[in-house]
Amino acid sequence: MASRMIGSAEGRWIRADLRARRGQALLTVLTVAGIVTALIAAATLLEDGTNPWRGLFERGRGAHIWLHTKTVPDVSALKSLDGVTDVAGPYHSAPATLAADRGRKVPISLQEAPAALPAVARPLLSEGRWLDVRHPEGVVVERSFARAIGLRPGSPFTVTGLNGATHTLTVAGLAETGDQGFYPEWAPGLAWTLRQTLTAVEPAPGRTETVTGLRLADPGLTDLIVQRAVFTLHGQVQRVTTWREVRAAMELDNRLLGLLLGLFGVAGLVAAALALANVTGGRVLTQLRDIATLKSLGFTRGQITRMLLVEHGALGLAGIALGVVAAWLITAYALGESGVTPLSPGPHAAITVGTALVVLVAVWLPAWRGGRTPPLPAVPAAPPRGRLSRLARLALLVRLPPALVLGARDAFTRRTPALLTICGVAIPMMMITIGLGCWATLDDFIRHPEGVGQAAALAVRPADLTAEETRERVMADPDVVAAYPGAELDALVPGQTRTVRTRALGTSADPYPFPVAEGRMFRDRGEAVAGQGLLDLLGARVGDRVRITIGGTPLIVRIVGRVIEPEQDGEVLSLGIDSLAAKDAVPPRFYGLVLRPGAEPGEARARLQAQGLEVAQAVNPADRLAVIRVIIVALVVVLALIGLANLLTAGALGLRDHVLDLAVLKAMGLTPRQVMATLVTGTGLLAVVGVLLGGCVGALWSRALIDLEGRHSGVGAGIGRAPTPGMLAAAIGIAIGAALLVALIPARRAARARIPVTAR
Amino acid sequence: MTTTPAIRAVNLVKIYQSGRGLPVPAVRGVDLTVDPGEFVAIMGPSGSGKSTLIHLLGGLDTRTSGEIWLDGKRADTLSESGWAVLRREKIGFVFQFFNLVTNMTVADNVELPALLGGASPRHARERREYLLGELGLTDRAAAAPAQLSGGEQQRVALARALANQPRLLLADEPTGNLDSRNTRDVLKLLSRVHRQGQTIVLVTHDARVAGLADRVVSLLDGEIVDDGAIVRRRGPGGTAGDVVELRG
Prior knowledge:
The complex is a heterodimer.
Chain A: H1 2-5, H2 8-20, H3 22-50, H4 52-59, E1 65-69, H5 75-79, E2 84-99, E3 105-112, E4 124-128, E5 138-142, H6 143-149, E6 156-160, E7 166-176, E8 189-193, H7 195-201, E9 209-216, H8 222-232, E10 237-242, H9 243-250, H10 255-286, H11 288-297, H12 301-334, H13 345-371, H14 390-397, H15 402-413, H16 415-447, E11 458-461, H17 467-476, E12 480-492, E13 499-505, E14 516-519, E15 527-531, H18 532-538, E16 545-550, E17 553-563, E18 572-575, H19 582-585, E19 590-595, H20 601-610, E20 614-617, H21 621-624, H22 626-668, H23 672-713, H24 725-752
Parallel strand pairs in A: 3-8, 5-7, 13-18, 15-17
Antiparallel strand pairs in A: 1-9, 1-10, 2-3, 2-6, 2-9, 4-7, 5-8, 6-7, 11-19, 11-20, 12-13, 12-16, 12-19, 14-17, 15-18, 16-17
Helix pairs in contact in A: 2-12, 3-4, 3-10, 3-12, 3-13, 3-22, 10-13, 10-16, 10-22, 10-23, 12-13, 14-15, 15-23, 16-22, 16-23, 16-24, 22-23, 22-24, 23-24
Chain B: E1 7-17, E2 23-34, E3 39-43, H1 50-57, E4 65-70, E5 73-74, H2 80-90, E6 91-94, H3 106-116, H4 121-134, H5 150-162, E7 168-172, H6 180-195, E8 199-204, H7 207-210, E9 215-220, E10 223-233, E11 243-247
Parallel strand pairs in B: 3-8, 3-9, 6-7, 7-8
Antiparallel strand pairs in B: 1-2, 1-4, 4-5, 9-10, 10-11
Helix pairs in contact in B: 3-4, 3-5, 5-6
């Protein structure tokens, strides 16, 4: 088909050329496919890791809007609203108290659910079984809540209704849902029961409320439909939650991840462009003679350009198609079992179309260049200049072996290809180094958690004890060095419709060791430090005064420093607990515990929990960013392959330029080994220059680049680390070794082949 | 009655720029008319501009000034693409280094011009089978050019040049890279197609090759210094060297 569309002569040539270089064509397809697969898989993992809501919501066909009403609403009126496709419920819902372990009482929300799983807003059963009319005492508990409380299928579930009556139920199963956020960010916890069980726990109809879910055709119309629904139900509606709030509650602070993905995506695309341009360019250069012959036969410039564009573009597009299929297989089979949802259409299309454009642009340039080949087959492609390069003269001066001198001369006689080769190696190497810098940064997070504000590995809540008792018990533990009283509150900031986190930890006299990157630590009441995200949000700078409102109490603080703040996109204000009003500060809500160096937080946590304390372990940002490491490894592999492919092209070109020289060298009496050394030096020297250049630039840039990422993600500059010298040396060593090996293969073959002294 | 010349060059000039920007004239005001069916050999020492001249005539290189008329139509004003279309329809080229497309088989190489000219694949195949049969290469159709000897490659190149039955066959040192036996074979083929009415312009520095032509044009430093038809008188046995007589 294609051949008929572009003329059978061109089709014939394309087929012949592809046949003649099946291996290379396959390599091109696989390289592009690898890049596309890596990009899509990385994007899928990141999206899923940072936004679990989407997957849960899609799988459970969640409702976009939940209306909470006192009485049962008019369902048919809601259903007939424009834009509403389905209605979930109405379900009864009642508040109750769950008796957790060690006598703790936890508020929960019981919600009615049918015995048959509903089609819309369907809870996703992950363990155990669903509700059964034969076992009305069974309840199904939302999974994040069950985890926090320590419930499993079969656990007793003792609830107390508002009337004080206690009912002993059993956990039948655990389920996930995209209709409310995770506990404890979203409280109270949720449990589904049968209607009859709910009525037994809360017999008074006046104490229950009714929830009704609306699934929309277009989520963008949520606000409009909420207004209409509220209007339709004439003041029945008590409150409304929408998918946006649920998503926001579930989302991780993912700006850093998003930025990193963007960086790696751009790196991947640049790498793809480089690889293709290099392969196509190299192929066209080696074919200039054939192309000239075709022109002498009557091929026009446009025909040649189109022919090359179609051939190489088709390889790239085939690679993209293969990559999309491979990524689909990976997400469907390898990742599907762990519940990862395929990438949403937006980023998917962006990756596919982006790579396609990059492929076409990368191919177009060499194709256009090929089309401009003069139709004079006899003219050799740009005669090499004969003079010795400065480097070669230097090599002669220090009396290096002749093979090295000749190789050094070859390396730089053709300036432009030499420069292209160096860039082709240096750019992937630079990106690899930057990737290693990201790796080192993550390592640094783990090795020095205090550098990212996690000096306290554990946080203890007093639970049933008084603050003083808690402090005493905690300080009695051999691993605990310090306990800082703390409170986390939401504060309103001027000009913002939402709240920001205010974290009081330690006192002004004895502040918690926040990692101050700029300015100084707070020393007095009324002083505070802030993350970059908060400074950006307020448009403030270190030294400014800001006015915030905490629980109705205004508080004016002076920001005296900027800290590294990995939480909440950096939108956190940290101050001493004595800066807060007494009502917020006394007693402290929790204690941040600093352990002695080398102590195992998990063990200390277990010991403290055994004493009846509620202990949370800090999650290192590096653990949340663990997926980045997978991406770094994948990218390093792809980039290394690209660098090597570029080198192979350079080697082939070098060989083409030096076929005649080789005959002369042999005639002059160079042994095959010396000829080989000459060729390896020719390509290898460029590779070494490229690797060193890329490594140095990457090492210099990685820190600045990661800091830039940090700044834009709200964490703040100051987190970036360059790759460790050992890591960098190993990377450079391996790269140079691999480059020399790659240069060796064609050189060895060429040195042993019989070379005709005649035609080029 | 005058016939339209197959090709006519009027005051053709080609000046290259040397690396230092100095003009280097390669062809200096050549006037040349070749009639249909004529076999013209262009001779001259190395650097006399004969290859440049034939490249200009085939549109592979652009002239600095002067006119080129092909089949009564002006060709020197054509664009590169215009020349390409003209070449595929009316001109066949044979080069010293054969210049077969390396990644295509012999059959593909010979069919390519016909396909390019818009012939159906079937017609192109028939034409290729006929030409390869004529040149004794039928059994090498599926071979790659690299597998052929120099003489065979040049015969394939000749078949390719004749694929579209061009008005004009331009040959640039077609035997310059062949041994004497292969030279003889290729020359035989050239005389055969000439006898069938093919117009040929051939560049050579070999007097024996030029001896086949109807007319020899001698070039020196880019200018025609001699242009004459040849009359052969066979000596006894005819091997000790033919007597060539030039008639001005």
